[in-house]
Amino acid sequence: MKNLFGHPHARLVALATLVLLIPLVARALLGWSNPFGYLSDLALGSLLLVLLHRARWWLALPVLLAGAALWLASAELVSAVGRLPTSADLGYLFDPQFMENSTGGGLAHPWLPGLMACGLVAWLLSVWHGRANKPAPLPRKVLALPAALFALHWGAQQWLPSEAEQWRQYNLQHQLLSAGLNTLQHTAMDWAGQTRPVSPLPSAGLTQSDLHGQKLLGAPGSARNLLVITLEGIPGAYLSPNRQALHSRFDESLMPNLSRWAERGMNTPDYVLHTHQTIRGLYAMLCGDYDKLANGTPKGMELLTQQQRNQACLPAQLRQAGFTTHYLQGAGLRFMAKDRIMPHIGFDAVHGLEWFSNENYLEFPWGKDDRAFFEGALDYVGQLRQQGQPWMLTLLTVGTHQPYSAPAEYLERYDTAKQAAVAYLDDAVGAFLDNLERQGVLQDTLVVVTSDESHGIDGVRLASSWGFNLTLAPEQAQLPRIKQGTYGHVDLATSLLDYFALPIPVALAGRSLYREYDSGREMVSFTNGMLRYHNGQGVLAECDFQQRCRRYESKGFIADQAKYLGTGDSTLGPQVAALAGVLDQSLLQTPLNLRYQFGGPSAIQLQARIRDDWADNLIGAQYLEMPQGSHTRVRVKVRALDPRQAAYIQLKAKEMEQDVPLGLPEEVRVTADKPLEMEFGFDNPTVRKAFSFHLLGYGGGEVEVSDFSVITALPGEEEPTEEMADGHIAQSS
Questions:
Q1: SS in 3 state form for 480-509?
Q2: Which of 129, 365, 501, 608 could form a disulfide with 5, with the two C-beta atoms 3.0–4.6 Å apart?
Q3: Tens-digit pLDDT profile for residues 139-186
Q4: Domain spans in the chain, listed from the N-terminal domain onward
């Protein structure tokens, strides 16, 4: 063994094995085989080989560990939700607590860390045994190899663009490097005044409501109540009527019960999900607007600074029309500020995990398993039926979020935990709908079943954007089984108000699902790192992170196959990006002088210990954006409610989920008579994106976070905050 690792070339061979051979083998074993992907691995591996061959081990080791972690993170996220990580995801993937919850303590590919660890150990042994001899320099020709391979990958991408998913074409480091260089190039061109003016694409069809279609119902809908069932991460391909209508080659029947109900309802096969992330999907479907078509502060969060636009959202409109409005989800509410966003958009009652008194059927780190959730939801519906007013109830499941927990009998029947979890959800929602019918709920209630986002399906075209909308109405006989045309979450609020013959606020966009249109329509989505735009005239443009676009002939947005028309010209990518920018700014004309209040008078029960920075967060101040040159001021007030118990409070900050040191105390003891009162500020010399505050506490008892204000403004322009009647700070210049 000593002779093996002491060989003069052992260090070079071990390093080449770790950075070149193992990534190529891992790509093949993961089923990600693609010429571009192998070329990307060779380019990055050869670069690491050149840089680290003669580097000191304590400099090289962190780089190699980070590379291994990125490979593991990519494999896990692709397996879980069918997409390559973005820079905003990296902190989640490096956070051991989040990964433990998301994987349930296990990995989708447990062999991969073992393979990487073996390579690292072999390299360390070679370094140790060869420590007395400095490695010989590499030939000059080898030094030029990384640049040649990167150039070959770039040139091939320009001339022979691939339709394969991003993870098949790039390793994560190469993709992030390319994205950063592309941004730097565009910034430099802007500074040099070399950017050519781009004719903007029309946006009126994306920002205004369209009620010019022929009504499907001759009179206002006869339903008295509204039930919206939102299933975590479910793609449209799981419903058999959708697969049949679009002639999809995906033939796995994972949701036969929901498909059985879909045969009885109105299905919209070409139904588009505009983004990833639950809070963004809920905002689009309930507020009739596209959420950020990039990584920025979710619009639901920005809506907290508005006191008019929130009144246009569906719950507020139905409440104004006499409905009582309710929101119930199977997880805690504070993450992503749903405890504040949902009341702000018009829900009278907002409940999460704390509402349920029934036990789970299985251990699930994020909340209620789906069977237990729907049994509780059935009780909730029963309580609503006893009241005299019409009601709206929105449900959100969490069981099909990774780690995809399912009972043992389901895990035995399916190849993966993800498939087992989907099947478990299918049985739960099928039984729920059966019980609704048995109790007569469907006779006077409009039921819409949809999903917040899509966890994707490997090998299925546009699966990350493919959603579904199933309508079960009292007047079902008057509705078609297959609703033709392109629709998406942006249409849902307008559609439901149209069903009840209620006025459509000017702020809402979208068409009505309960009308027939004789023309196409524009549609946009940003999923799996691709920005897609359909012009409503048979052409879909798909643009990557470098604003390189491919054009397809496609009648609708979602299609199993589409005819490739070639690459777009040099202006198409900037045009689509500019259109996305217009849609992103629909709420705020400027991100400056934003004032958020994440505190409130409610009592929060503390755990005996902090288990997770994410699940145990006491506030919802996540994914904020702070512009360049601004100053952020934070004010915090926390007190213990039980005079007999002390609470221990921590405050952390993360940018792109990486810890940001703010110079704050590591921990503060808080009692009823000695509350924590703190105010601090920091400058933002560059743009901060995905900036999150994590207020954590332990010690038992309850606390009240009466104030957690976050104010971002230009230096010298901070103004006194104005507390609104509902507790939100609602100032925005």
A1: CCECCCCEEHHHHHHHHHHHCCCCCCCCCC
A2: 129
A3: 888 889 999 999 999 888 877 777 778 888 999 899 888 877 777 776
A4: 2-191, 204-513+520-584, 594-713
Return the CATH number of the domain spanning residue range 204-513+520-584: 3.40.720.10
User: What band does 101 get if pLDDT is binned at 50, 70 and 90?
Assistant: very low
Residue position matching structure tokens 């009292």: 474
| Residue that the structure tokens 């490096």 belong to | 94
d(CA 153, CA 162): 11
Among candidates 389, 269, 381, 374, which has minimal Cα distance to 324?
Answer: 389
And the tokens for 620? 């919802």
CA distance 595 to 581: 22
Q: Is 496 left (phi over 0), alpha (psi -120 to 50) or beta?
A: alpha
Residues whose CB falls within 8 Å of the CB of residue 458, separated by 6 or more in sequence, listed in order: 31, 78, 82, 165
Specify the pLDDT at position 725: 33
What is the DSSP pairing of strand 391-396 with strand 324-329?
parallel
Site of tokens 């905002």: 283
Name which of 547, 596, 550 is nearest 574 in CA terms.
547
Using CA of residue 619, residue 620, residue 622, residue 628, what is the dihedral sign? negative
Pairing of strands 658-659, 647-655: antiparallel
Task: List, in order, residues 6 or more apart from 13 with CB less than 8 Å away.
Answer: 7, 126
Rg (CA), the chain: 27
Give the span between the Cα atoms of 615 and 628, in whole angstroms.
30
Q: Is the four-CA dihedral 456, 460, 463, 468 of positive or negative sign?
A: negative
Strand 530-534 to 539-543 pairing: antiparallel
Q: Quickly count helices (H) and strands (E) in the chain.
A: 24, 28
d(CA 335, CA 328): 14
Distant-in-sequence, close-in-space partners of 214: CB < 8 Å, separation ≥ 6: 515, 516, 517
Rounded Cα distance between 396 and 394, Å, is 7
Assess contact for 30 and 109: CB atoms under 8 A. Answer: yes
Under DSSP, the state recorded for 230 is E
Q: Determine the 3-state secondary structure of 608 from DSSP.
A: coil
Tokens encoding 102: 């998301």
**For 125-137, what is the mean pLDDT?**
85
Dist. CA 624–CA 273, nearest whole Å: 22
Q: What are the Cα distances from residue 445, in Å, to 219, 227, 544?
A: 16, 7, 42
Question: How far, in Å, CA of 346 to CA of 358, rounded?
Answer: 27
CA distance 697 to 704: 11
* Range with lowest mean pLDDT among 42-46, 197-201, 281-285: 197-201
The closest alpha carbon to 650, from 691, 612, 698, 604, belongs to 698
Q: Do domains 204-513+520-584 and 594-713 have the same CATH topology?
A: no
The DSSP letter of residue 85 is P
Helix (H, G, I), strand (E, B) or coil at 296: coil
* Topology (CATH) of 594-713: Jelly Rolls (2.60.120)
Is the pTM of the predicted complex or chain greater than 0.90? no
Name, in order, each residue with C-beta under 8 angstroms of 177's C-beta and a sequence gap of 6 or more. none
Q: Which helix (H) or strand (E) holds 205?
A: helix 204-207
Q: Which of 78, 91, 94, 20 is nearest to 52 (CA)?
A: 20
CA terminus-to-terminus distance, the chain: 69
Q: Whose CA is closest to 445, among 495, 391, 501?
A: 391
Report the distance separating Cα 297 and Cα 513, nearest Å: 29
CA separation for the pair 314, 347 (Å, rounded): 9
